[in-house]
Amino acid sequence: MDALVEVSGLTKRYGGTLAVDGVDLKVLPGEVYGFLGPNGAGKTTTLRILTGLIAPTSGTVRVLGGRPGDAAVLKGTGSMIESPAFYPYLSGLDNLRLLAEYAGVSRQRIDEVLELVDLTDRAKDRFSTYSLGMKQRLGVAAALLKDPELVILDEPTNGLDPAGMRDMRRLIRELGTEGRTVLLSSHLLGEVQQICDRVGIINAGRMVAEHNVDELRGEQELVVRATPKDTAQAILTRFGSVHQYDDTLRVQVDPAQAAEVNRVLVEAGIAVSELHTTERALEDIFFELTTELSTGEEKTDVG
Length: 303
Description:
Blueprint: E1 5-14, E2 17-27, E3 32-36, H1 43-50, E4 58-63, H2 71-75, E5 77-80, H3 92-103, H4 107-116, H5 132-144, E6 150-154, H6 162-177, E7 181-186, H7 189-195, E8 198-203, E9 206-212, H8 213-217, E10 220-227, H9 229-236, E11 242-245, E12 248-251, H10 258-267, E13 271-279, H11 282-293
Parallel strand pairs: 3-7, 3-8, 5-6, 6-7
Antiparallel strand pairs: 1-2, 1-4, 8-9, 10-12, 10-13, 11-12
Helix pairs in contact: 3-4, 4-5
């Protein structure tokens, strides 16, 4: 399957600051791809390059089979990068009308996207009166105007209340099931886990993982709460990799060995107060990967 977005060795340097450092990324047709990383990791810089807003320092980038910024690529791509910008003195509806006229989009499509993002009732209000969440939704509406094959959204739930976040997640899932491809950047781990098919994790400008969400989470783990914890951790390393999470220990071991794990701990004089299986959360994996990469070097927050 040919990738709609294919990036190899992407680097972006601002003076002495390396914002993106040799990133490889591939987004396949019809998937919702989560681009995950902390603020300042390089997500927005990468998306700016993909949409032709800035040029890379080095590396190769192909979007919809062409170069970012080419007319044919722009025609098939809808995007919202950072905070959406519109004319403040015009209504949301009139802002979309201007964009639609420029892009050759019908008036009917304007009504459709306003309905999709639940802004129909406020469409005639000035943009300057919109809340941050409403501005964000209008930005998504603008990204969908051309009925694009590829939708690139930078932190689309930023500023939304819990109900708005739920509705935005539903919309993004629907876009994926309708055959569109969505590239979604976020620093919200739960959001990515709920709606994305695959995820790429970036930290300090470097790609540290790219996998199917289920593959990245891996198999089930044993959660153990025991005292003394340090002694229990030393014993558990016999069974598999062990890491701490809050006040519990997580052991990557076949859950069928739970009884054996419990027996060994008890025989060693360890007080076991909790032992059960759980799937690894994306949050756990994210912090493991980003902590491993962190070396204490300082980088400027450039997106």
